[in-house]
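REQUEST ID: PR-0412
SUBMITTED BY: lab tech R.K.
PRIORITY: routine
TASK: structure prediction, single protein chain
INPUT:
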Amino acid sequence: MKKFYITTSIPYVNATPHIGNVLDSLYADVLARWHRQQGYDVRFLTGTDEHGAKIVRSAEAAGKSPKEFVDENSQKFRALREILNLSWDDFIRTSDQNRHWPGARKLWKKLAENGDLYKKTYRGIYCVGHEAFITEKDLIDGKCQDHQKAPETIEEENWFFKLSDYGKKIEKLILKDKLRIVPESRKNEILAFIRSGLKDVSFSRPSKDLKWGVPVPDDSSQTMYVWADALVNYISALGYGSEDESLFKKYWPADIQVIGKDNLRFHAAIWPGMLLATGIKLPKTIFVHGFINVDGQKISKTVGNVIDPAALVGKYGAEAVRYFLLREFSPFEDGNFSYAAFEERYNSDLANGLGNFTSRVLAMGEKLGKIKAEKEDKLVIQKIKSIKKIFEEDIKESRIHEALMAIWELIHYGDAYVNEKQAWNHPECIYTLIVILDTIAALLNPFLPKTSEKITQAIAWEDKSSLRVKKTENLFPRIP
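STATUS: complete
OUTPUT:
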């Protein structure tokens, strides 16, 4: 079997999950499920990023130790598996001293052995929100553009990684799509950043100021800078640095790494630099998605527009939440969530669209009892083939919302077929409609797995030439 390894960027556990945190996992889940359908040996990794100054401060504010704090919040991210019906195979925590730390330490030692690390005293402006040193160019009115807080001026002795040595190599690999960045706009963005000149990056913090993290090998005075250790999760989860590296040899390099646009520089500049410096293969594709805004505003505790995915699922159901977030906007652009848009999309696409078509076909089929497999309508089969081709092209290019649009085109086509043929009067048309519905269920599986299963279970083949169908409960009752 051909392997397919897909990862998500690991969310930072300084706060509990909100709907903006679930896009990585949802997009990766669709691609993982589709590749499983195609017969691939799939490994899907997610996890949590648990070190750094921001964690320590958040824990102190909550009156907890860093370990208590990350244990509690990491569990809330892990719980999204059941809440949103995610199919990941592995969940890595960067505070896991047995699974993660050996890989982080091994990669550090390789960088040191190759002469890619050096120590120096550094003075710069540090954004705790980013867990990174930033520049004056990143500020607006003296504040970080993303976090709206003034950075701290820090002077300390750190280990630095010679990222500047790898800029030309990374640029060439991206230009040749050896390291493919999707979409093109993000590829152009990272190329412009690299061409402006990659600078060496701080890879540690003094342990007197930051004890919560992976200790630097052979230097007890320093703790690994959060990004230096967190990026290694993609290979430490495969056993890199452990006694058994068989999974690492089997699955690495990653076929797709799904990240948010705010993580682009770390994943498409620093991470490739680390891998080039240690002789490890680069991931094949980095899929960069946009943010979710709520009612047109950035998600913020201050604004009070943070939406808990568990509460949203509790109100509308996991399948409806999955559908809205995967269909409403392009993965490559920023999207907007509002309850009004959610309910409108739910009623038009799920209740009136998929739900209504499924009910009509299954009700007509159940009345017939045993249904003989008829010769399919050639025009219908051509339409199905055409939709499948468009669907597969969209999936391969990670155009998740457009793949869903292709499925809904087939639903609309099926509805029109019912009306044009007056199928209720023509039993031979009902078999064709069941073929359409069965195709829709198969295509839907990566997106709405439970809905797909309900439809498939309603169609029972008795033998190669006949089947029976039974009505299901209303898949998506209308929201009043």
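NOTES: The longest helix spans residues 339-368.
REVIEWED BY: pending
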